[in-house]
């Protein structure tokens, strides 16, 4: 994939994911705000209803007490005044209409102790009941046969006694309200009444949440409040209570919900959770896709590098074999037995070299598929190290270097495959030789730590950067110093080392500093 196209694809995918996350967060916040606004409207309506019901209950309480006293007094003193009369005579029908509308006053002479005044004064307070009395009568004029006698015969009569108009009722309520303002608030409504009314209204609206309430007078607390109510803190809802006839009041009913945020969020938890899950799935899929794209790009580059290196590795032995074959075919050379044997030895060595490379690739492939059968026996680590050093000793001496063994571990027997473990040590030593620009200087140490033996291979070669150190055990990975073929190999040696060590329940890791050499550690469990 083209690098620019790859970068553009990553940017577009990142912008899309960022947009999706932003939309989801915005939707959740908007939903919470909508729920909060709806909740606020509902609570305000509840407060208004509760305040109205408290006022009605107080009014009804006084009305019931007044009615009870009126019933106990008996017949009140009645007086009629403001009696209006209307008389009309119809000449055609000889009918006379009488209509009267009067107001009856009933005096109950109830004392002011009815209101439970704090001062307890005994002066009398006049309670009077006013009712309207309406009378309608129609009479017909009749004369006797002699034409002289005269009488009025009633043909229709109706009498109505009822209450006064709404204006009179409003006057009574105004009187009551003015008096009620003089009473302490805790005598006008109790905590139990408020709690009952609030709980009923909240239940009717399907609001199951803890609440705190309080009645405040001009910003100051009263005795009517819940134990945990605080004026400051969470959001408060307020409604006027005990209004007078003009709509003014000094009292406010306050309501707070300490866990309102949790309640509101819980109401959209289902949809929010699904949204978050789907967003998380998209994020995981996106991250996985980006990782796979980057990984595939890296693998593609590594494989291209591997193919180039393998081509170079095979090119040299094939060229050598071709030259040896051509030399043997020369009639002069074929008669020289010593030359023929030397050329045949070259062909055999180069063939072994190619075979070893192919075997290394196949071995790693089998390890990847868990098809490599590794039998394990009791072996001595020191013997394995000695065999491995013997494999590379001539090469090191040829370059003017050395490999010194410092085998100081008191115990050295492990359960391992002799051949594979030897190859592990050889690969590490071979790596140290290849990446030593100067004559190789290698030291091998062993020591026992708890129930494990530590094999330490230390060189004074080129060393590795921290970035290289993180990838050095990956398959096909190789560090280059310029020309891709400056160091022979195909990036499989250390990958093989790690897989074999892991199979032996061991650990392998490295420490290195650029220009100061590297140290490889192999940790294996002792028997």
Automatic annotation (TrEMBL):
Q: What EC number(s) does its UniProt record assign?
A: 2.7.13.3
Give start and end of each Histidine kinase domain.
Answer: 309-527
Q: Per the record, GO CC terms?
A: plasma membrane
Q: Which PROSITE patterns match?
A: HIS_KIN
Query: Which CDD domains does the UniProt entry name for this protein?
Result: HisKA
The protein's annotated catalytic reaction(s) are: ATP + protein L-histidine = ADP + protein N-phospho-L-histidine
Q: Which InterPro entries match?
A: BphY/WalK/GraS-like (IPR050351), HATPase_C_sf (IPR036890), HATPase_dom (IPR003594), His_kinase_dom (IPR005467), HisK_dim/P_dom (IPR003661), HisK_dim/P_sf (IPR036097), Sig_transdc_His_kin-like_C (IPR004358)
Instruction: Print the keywords alphabetically.
Output: Kinase, Membrane, Phosphoprotein, Transferase, Transmembrane, Transmembrane helix, Two-component regulatory system
The record's annotation in SMART domains points to: HATPase_c (SM00387), HisKA (SM00388)
* Gene Ontology terms for molecular function: phosphoprotein phosphatase activity; phosphorelay sensor kinase activity
- Which parts of the chain span the membrane according to its record? 6-28, 263-286
Question: What SUPFAM superfamilies does UniProt report for this protein, alphabetically?
Answer: ATPase domain of HSP90 chaperone/DNA topoisomerase II/histidine kinase, Homodimeric domain of signal transducing histidine kinase
Task: Give a GO biological-process term.
Answer: cellular response to phosphate starvation
* UniProt enzyme class: transferase
Q: What is this protein called?
A: histidine kinase
Q: Which organism is it from?
A: Flagellimonas alvinocaridis
